[in-house]
């Protein structure tokens, strides 16, 4: 029986491990099959983390986190958790190697992943002109033209955000109508920097060794093809949270989740189950920023410490 299990080794999980062990917990285990770091390690440039003035790659940025977070006694199990159950007052982690481990409390920080489209060139230029985060990468396109693909709230909101720094934003959507809130659609249509390309799809993302330099866009009604000379495309076609481990044998979820599958928590990162917490991109209404995930992890760890103190 361990005191605290942390499932997921991104910024939220590592921060949780740091605060939990430095806060006095002696038996804290991080479950992450690979080296910790999370999806941010795939980013080519990070320049918006407070206190880090250099522009660094995601891999270089996360490297010192590992050393710091393991300094105070955090243990690392390089194995995947396939399911999490509640048995009585304790949680049971079912591991991929057939073992199971019991824990008094658990922090789920398994993150999520933006949905990919499968468009030709998307994988090749992922992180080299293809982005899923306007807040992270918009600044790199200051005074340049970019494209946004998608028709939901996120796509329109991010398109509006990009107009603050970009000279023009092409908003591409396969339908004439949008799924976003009416007020968001109104704001986007009133923005002079946004040009709507509908109904249209991106047939190909083109580029060279320097990254993206053009998009081949097809109007689905007329069949007309046009090439947009842009250095970047932001794709917002959905986000998938990694909550597979919470699915029980009867297909229900272990704890309360929203309609998108994200874990519902309060401001203390508490779920509706005592001793179970969630932090980072896996939780509902997450900002999907490293600094926010780190804050979530610290908050979840402090809540776990308080929970264990009250139930010791």
TrEMBL record:
Gene3D superfamilies: FAD/NAD(P)-binding domain. InterPro entries: FAD/NAD-bd_sf (IPR036188), FAD/NAD-binding_dom (IPR023753), Ferredoxin-NADP_redctase_2 (IPR050097), Pyr_nucl-diS_OxRdtase_2_AS (IPR008255), Thioredox_Rdtase (IPR005982). Its cofactor is FAD. Binds 1 FAD per subunit. Its EC number is 1.8.1.9. Belongs to the class-II pyridine nucleotide-disulfide oxidoreductase family. PANTHER family: THIOREDOXIN REDUCTASE 1-RELATED-RELATED (PTHR48105). This is Thioredoxin reductase. It comes from Helicobacter baculiformis. The lineage of its organism: Bacteria, Pseudomonadati, Campylobacterota, Epsilonproteobacteria, Campylobacterales.
């Amino acid at each position: 029986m361990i005191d605290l299990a942390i499932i997921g080794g991104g910024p939220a999980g590592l921060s949780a491990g740091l605060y939990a062990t430095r806060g006095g917990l002696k038996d804290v285990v991080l479950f992450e099959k690979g080296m910790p770091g999370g999806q941010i390690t795939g980013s080519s440039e990070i320049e918006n983390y407070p206190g880090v003035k250099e522009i660094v790659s995601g891999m270089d940025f996360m490297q010192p986190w590992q050393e710091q977070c393991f300094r105070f006694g955090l243990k690392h199990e390089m194995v995947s958790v396939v399911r999490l159950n509640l048995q009585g007052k304790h949680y049971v982690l079912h591991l991929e190697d057939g073992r199971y481990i019991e824990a008094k409390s658990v922090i789920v920080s398994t993150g999520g992943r933006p949905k990919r489209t499968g468009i030709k060139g998307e994988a090749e230029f992922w992180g080299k002109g293809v982005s899923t985060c306007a807040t992270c990468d918009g600044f790199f396109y200051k005074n340049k033209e970019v494209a946004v693909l998608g028709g939901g709230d996120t796509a329109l909101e991010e398109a509006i955000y990009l107009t603050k720094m970009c000279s023009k934003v092409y908003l591409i959507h396969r339908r004439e109508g949008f799924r976003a809130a009416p007020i968001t659609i109104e704001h986007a249509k009133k923005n002079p920097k946004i040009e709507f390309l509908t109904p249209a799809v991106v047939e190909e993302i083109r580029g060279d060794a320097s990254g993206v330099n053009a998009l081949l866009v097809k109007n689905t009604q007329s069949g007309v093809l046009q090439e947009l000379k842009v250095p970047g495309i932001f794709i917002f076609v959905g986000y998938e949270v990694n909550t597979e481990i919470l699915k029980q044998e009867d297909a229900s979820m272990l704890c309360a989740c929203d309609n998108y599958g994200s874990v519902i928590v309060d401001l203390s990162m508490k779920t509706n189950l005592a001793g179970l917490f969630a932090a980072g991109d896996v939780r509902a209404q997450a900002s999907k920023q490293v600094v926010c995930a780190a804050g979530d992890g610290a908050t979840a760890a402090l809540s776990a410490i308080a929970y264990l103190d009250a139930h010791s």
